[in-house]
Design goal:
The protein contains three helices and 15 strands. The protein is α+β, with helices and mostly antiparallel strands. A six-stranded mixed beta sheet has the order 3-2-1-6-5-4. Strand 4 and strand 5 form a beta hairpin. The radius of gyration is 18 Å and the shape is elongated. It starts with a helix and ends with a strand. The model has no long low-confidence stretch (mean pLDDT 90).
Length: 189
Amino acid sequence: MTDSAKAGNLLAQIPKADGKGLPPVHLWNPDFCGDIDMRIARDGTWYYLGTPIGRKPMVKLFSSIIRRDGDDYFLITPVEKVGIKVDDAPFVAVTLAVEGQGAEQVLRFTTNVEDEVVAGSEHPLRFALAEGTDEPAPYVHVRSNLEALIHRNVFYQLVDLAVSREIDGQSWLGVYSRGEFFPIGPEPV
């Protein structure tokens, strides 16, 4: 079966949205049907057969059925499971809304596919370095074991909000959201 036929079959099997949230991909265990030539670039652009998918509703539809098993990403329907490539994270947090301040501050992120998450114990922030570089790679947990890479401009907003807190005898800069402190990195001496 060609990649185009696989993608067409996959689209036909995605349950229609009923306004009650995302499809329950965590409950579906169909047979693996192989990989398709679909890739999500680090900037959040979805590609099919090497060409960007320009229709945002199509990207949102595909993003609703993505699942990560181990280090591999799949698009899942009740009857098909196809592998796709993800360069970094499947989503990008493109905006940040801040409510309140201090430990009671609330950080609300919106992704490139319009998912909204509030950082906290259910949606933690994680700060790492991009592979092979000293460039920051901040993430927010979106759902299941899927994360959004935090866009550089949004990361700078977080840095502006950073406060100092001592952890195990060392000063760390980080941000609060919903009473949780998320360390960005050690405070410069």
